What we know:
The structure holds 2 protein chains of 2 kinds. Chain A is of the alpha/beta class. Chain A has 2 domains: 10-120, NAD(P)-binding Rossmann-like Domain (Rossmann fold); 138-287, 3-Layer(aba) Sandwich (Rossmann fold), CATH 3.40.50. Chain A has helices spanning 19-31, 57-64, 75-87, 102-112, 156-167, 188-197, 214-225, 259-268, 280-287; strands at 10-14, 34-39, 47-48, 51-54, 68-71, 92-95, 118-120, 126-129, 133-136, 145-152, 172-177, 203-209, 230-235, 272-273. In chain A, strand 5, helix 3 (75-87) and strand 6 (92-95) form a beta-alpha-beta unit. In chain A, helix 3 packs parallel to helix 4 (102-112) and helix 5 packs across helix 9. Chain A is globular, with a radius of gyration of 18 Å. Chain B contains 14 helices and 18 strands. Chain B has helices at 5-14, 28-38, 69-76, 133-139, 157-166, 169-172, 177-193, 230-233, 243-250, 269-281, 298-310, 328-341, 357-365, 377-388; strands spanning 22-25, 43-47, 60-63, 80-81, 91-92, 96-100, 104-115, 120-126, 145-148, 196-207, 212-214, 218-221, 254-257, 262-266, 288-291, 316-323, 348-354, 372-374. In chain B, the strands form 5 sheets. In chain B, strands 7, 8, 9, 10, 11 and 12 form a 6-stranded antiparallel beta sheet that branches. A 4-stranded antiparallel beta sheet of chain B has the order 1-6-2-3, with helices on one face. Chain B has a 4-stranded parallel beta sheet with strand order 14-16-17-18, sandwiched between helices. In chain B, strand 7 and strand 8 (120-126) form a beta hairpin. In chain B, helix 2 (28-38) packs across helix 3 and helix 11 (298-310) packs across helix 12. The longest helix of chain B has 17 residues, at 177-193. At the A-B interface, helix 4 and helix 5 of A face helix 4, helix 10 and helix 14 of B.
Amino acid sequence: MSILVNKNTRVVVQGITGKEGSFHATQCKAYGTKMVAGVTPGKAGQEVEGIPVFNTVADAVKKTDCDTSLIFVPPPFCADAILEAADAGVKLIICITEGIPVNDMVKVKRALHGRDVRLIGPNCPGVITVDEAKIGIMPGFIHKKGIVGVVSRSGTLTYEAVHQLSILGLGETTCVGIGGDPVNGTGFVDVLPLFEKDPETQAIVMIGEIGGDAEEKAADFIKKNVKKPVISFIAGITAPPGRRMGHAGAIISGGKGTAVEKMKTLEAAGVTVVKNPAEIGAAVKQALGR
Amino acid sequence: MNVHEFQAKSLFAQFGVPVPRGKEITSPDAATAWATELNTPVFVVKAQIHAGGRGKAGGVKITKDKAAVAGLAKELIGKTLVTHQTGPKGRQVHRLLMEEGANIAKELYLSLLVDRDTGWPTFIASTEGGMEIEEVAAHTPEKIIKEAIDPAVGFQGHNGRNVAFALGLQSLEPAVINPFVKMLENLYRLFMEKNAALVEINPLIITKEKTLVALDGKVSFDDNGLFKHEDVQEMRDLNEEEPLEIEAAANNLNYVKLDGNIGCMVNGAGLAMATMDVIKLAGSEPANFLDVGGGATKETVAAGFRILLKDPNVKGIFINIFGGIVRCERIAHGVIEAAKEVKITVPLVVRLQGTNADEGRKLLAESGLKLEVANDLWEAAQKIVKLTGKAA
């Protein structure tokens, strides 16, 4: 078992003929993911590493039964690409693109509301179910099949945590990057119940950062609904207010969204909050009594 | 990206939001000339810097004497204002906004931003105009009015009426209700069309003549939306930005200057923040946030070194790279090449982890460069703090 994606997931890559798209489609395929289609308007009939390219997502769905989209389309056209995937009937959309205007995402989020489709990202590393499907840009080899579910707003910081879990022999079930943008498709509160239900996941690592209130909402949800141990690190305790720390969503504004506030709220909800990012793996091990 | 008040107000005017008659002034002569043209009983001269709290810091002058405006302009231009938002160093004034005075009957607060919780653009209004909205929210939350706009259909008249009646405009001044609704509609249009991140009017005033006027104005823009708007890009004022941050941006690096003395260079924003945090845990303070991006190369590492070393506070450098798709031995080559180009004068600790980390560390160790290599994040942080001495 796992969450969101597995060995049967059939992936279409939007923007497959671009530099990023072709590189990562190849990497995902090499990991063993079922990469069944690509889309670049006007390039139907071409192939990328044996993956057939279509003009539209609708064509790709019709011909290949793909159910999940991985998006590398550049920011000015990305909102359109997400909506195209949804309209074509794709059920899971994973958007890697960084730099989409917030107001574009406002409209996309509204348009997807109430529909049977899940958007992950944008500005995220993607989703990996270890040894089954890698749908994103994360390095596959640092992962090891195991018992910890990981959900994170960050990219390389997630790799750091995963690396620790793998080295300690705990391993991961599924790792979900929800992305660093202020308006995104999937939040911690959407992923936590999936891990709580997944029988293979025995503990959950949640990596947050300054800005917004996703961690506070997660704390509330965990308190009420999560029985599995949750271990959390919040990046940005040294970040000054009012400054954007790389991610568009990582900003303390109006005194809200500080790391200290988030840590306190999570601790009050029974979450093990790790202050040192080098100790995430060790804290999980301890929480599991191993 | 932030812009000046005079730029925000010119956008307001463009979108039909009433503002006082005013103009950007950069010299005492221009102030005198504009005062003659303005021909008003009260002149307001306001320093233009990207920070709030200008009034308290002496950056806003009011006079009834037309002959006095040149002197006020002379006093303000070149002056360094220290407000609660500028930090202790303050910000030098290069330009002024000079405008007509207004007869204030009532001050209100109005802003528009995307509520991150719902993902909907949301108006925030309050009868406590002129105060900081965070203070109002903290002490009298019942005085905060929120109205979310459904992005599927955009602003509707009832959205405006909801705010107008909640503010009590009916008893304050019924004549401004319709203009108020229209103003909100125009602000929503500005917000969406120009990819704004925040539009704020504080105070929005009701005048004794029963009109609405945006007496102050603040607009900031979503950096991700700037590519759509050349007119907005032209409003950028480099005087308001940290020179090292401008240089970093020109090299596609994400850099924020801080006050500590350990410079850090990291791939990825989350890991960059975590690296800053771990420096503090180890007993020192980070000098900066620097994300060199997922694909760190020799060029980006060299540019990063140059920027870090220009900060006189930097007493040591900590490079923390988690190699994913980018292999560590390539990064090691990049560090070695860059270190040859840029003379590194302070202790350097390099921590490599991930793809081909062993190979990368070996290359660094054998390079003959004066640096320390580390595997583990905590070990690396302790090393650099030890080498630079603890923060005072």
